[in-house]
Amino acid sequence: MRPTCNSSLIQAPFLLENCTKEFKELGRPKKPMSSYFLFTQSRKEVFKGKALKEFQDQIKKEWVKLPATEKAKFEKQASELMVKYKKDLEAWELKMISIGRTDLVRNKPLREKKQKAVKKQ
């Protein structure tokens, strides 16, 4: 039996690479960026010309010091992108099923993101 892209037998690097290429060729949507990466992307113009490590350290410090209201903007944007991604992925999977490529469709549904616990003070 030939392992498929949806198989749990994906252990060989060449098979995983072939699956990735196949997903890209067939137009599978890419997973969206997290809120942290959206923040990083918004700040990258400020740090042009700096070393990568220096840039990462500065971004990390800024993210930690960022007020909750500012973080909420990026988290909202990330959640909107995730909703769009889920819709696009479902549409893509239906398309793959309709053309007979059920080996490319997920066996498990997407997990819902857990809500962060609010600390009582």
From TrEMBL:
<dbReference type="GO" id="GO:0006357">
    <property type="term" value="P:regulation of transcription by RNA polymerase II"/>
</dbReference>
<dbReference type="InterPro" id="IPR050342">
    <property type="entry name" value="HMGB"/>
</dbReference>
<keyword id="KW-0539">Nucleus</keyword>
<dbReference type="InterPro" id="IPR036910">
    <property type="entry name" value="HMG_box_dom_sf"/>
</dbReference>
<dbReference type="Pfam" id="PF09011">
    <property type="entry name" value="HMG_box_2"/>
</dbReference>
<dbReference type="GO" id="GO:0005634">
    <property type="term" value="C:nucleus"/>
</dbReference>
<keyword id="KW-0238">DNA-binding</keyword>
<feature type="DNA-binding region" description="HMG box">
    <location>
        <begin position="29"/>
        <end position="93"/>
    </location>
</feature>
<protein>
    <recommendedName>
        <fullName>HMG box domain-containing protein</fullName>
    </recommendedName>
</protein>
<dbReference type="InterPro" id="IPR009071">
    <property type="entry name" value="HMG_box_dom"/>
</dbReference>
<dbReference type="GO" id="GO:0003677">
    <property type="term" value="F:DNA binding"/>
</dbReference>
<feature type="domain" description="HMG box">
    <location>
        <begin position="29"/>
        <end position="93"/>
    </location>
</feature>
